[in-house]
Amino acid sequence: MTSVAAHLAPRIGSGGVRAIIDFTSSNRLGPGGFVALSFTDMWRKETIVSERLARILAGIDVRLNGDRPQDIRIHDERAFARILGDHGLGLGETYMEGWWDCSQLDELISRLLGSGIPIDRPSLLLETRKLAAKAFNFQSKSRASQVCETHYDLGNNLFKKMLDPRMVYSCAYWKGAATLEVAQEQKLDLICRKLGLQPGMTILDIGCGWGSFMKFAAERYGVRCVGYTLSPRQLELGRELCAGHDIEFRLADYRDIRGEYDRVVSVGMLEAVGWKNYGTFAQVVTRSLKPDGLALIHTMGRNDSSVHTNAWVDRYIFPNGINPSIQQLGKAFEGLLMMEDWHNFGPDYDPTLMEWNRRFQSSWRELEPHYTPRFKRMWEFYLLSFAGNFRARNLHLWQIVLSKPGRRQPECRIS
User: Fold this and answer.
1) What rounded mean pLDDT belongs to the chain?
2) Which of 2, 287, 320, 352 could bridge across to 172 with cysteines, CB 3.0–4.6 Å?
3) Residues 83-122: pLDDT tens digits?
């Protein structure tokens, strides 16, 4: 019978390591045409796969079943083939299933990405996702609420335990700060100062979450705010937290925003807009700004102009999300808005995510009745793998100040 070849990993870095397993003529077709493998065959192939994975990891000083923080401890040998075969998706799913562990998962991911080894490598699944992302608008109005249902509506108590008291779910600004509470207030104040807020100004917050920025701006700068969200749970708690302030919440898509405002802000929402809609988002910001207004976009960013995100993140954490590139945003802003300032403090997201994970872990006994052990592993993989991404400079955090053409240059270069 003919042999079956499985290419479990493409070329890795400059070393040219390639994991190829040749299922030779010792494999015989059994009933129904399936390959019948003896126990010896299976053992031999698992050994080959584990050796290939060990060789790849050795290049970043990570050992299989080692005892150092960055080492991988295998609990189920099926993890070898899943990780090499399904790449990023397999790495995350096998961790969720408890097939492997790592004491310092954030450092493992940082080493993988820092070495140039991509988490998602060429595969049929990846190519299919690329084609689908180009053919369809995954962030259309009819699909926009999916990320809220999957992520933001998981339960307000989860986020209360993980975040600071203001419920700020975006990168903190750690310059001189020793606690998350101080770092988040510094970030909120940094936005206010860049926008030059003055009492009585009207503020539009696109993707307002629980209203953390609006409440801070209303308290400290005496402004009036309108916030848009698609999450009913965020809307409910946000109205409770912001009671007594001149703040209005609206449950609607950003594409339905109407009216003009002195300032427009969007913190941690552009990641859900999608590459096909950056131009539409820029148009909404433009029409919502008064002639002398200013806008600030606070968003994660990436180094390449991809049209899809990591398969595991898309399936479990932020469905339909994608981080923008400089090129993609520049194209969207061109002819509509002037770039006044572009501030990158991505390294600050690393300690932010690590502190969120610390609080999540310390609160698990209170959260456990409402979530499964599998959810716990999924959530910690999310937080720690993102920390590793920012540590490796694979992801960034940008604050972009924009104005309409012809406006005098504002004093917004503040840190």
Assistant:
1) 87
2) 352
3) 888 889 999 999 999 999 999 999 999 999 998 776 666 6
For the chain, residues classed under CATH 3.40.50.150 are: 138-403
Question: Which contacts (CB < 8 Å, 24+ apart) does range 61-66 have?
Answer: 61/111, 62/108, 62/111
The CATH number that domain 138-403 falls under is 3.40.50.150
- Of 213, 100, 97, 227, the closest CA to residue 166 belongs to 213
222, 242 contact by CB (below 8 A):
no
Residues contacting residue 190 through CB under 8 Å, at least 6 positions apart: 173, 399, 414, 415
pTM score, whole prediction: 0.86
Backbone phi and psi for residue 8, each to the nearest 5 degrees, phi listed first: -85, -15
355: tokens are: 């502190």
**Cα gap 185→297, rounded to integer Å:** 17
Q: Which of 102, 128, 281 is nearest to 206 (CA)?
A: 281
Q: Report which of residues 131 and 266 the model is more confident about.
A: 266
CA angle 216, 222, 226 (to 5 degrees): 70
pLDDT at 44: 56
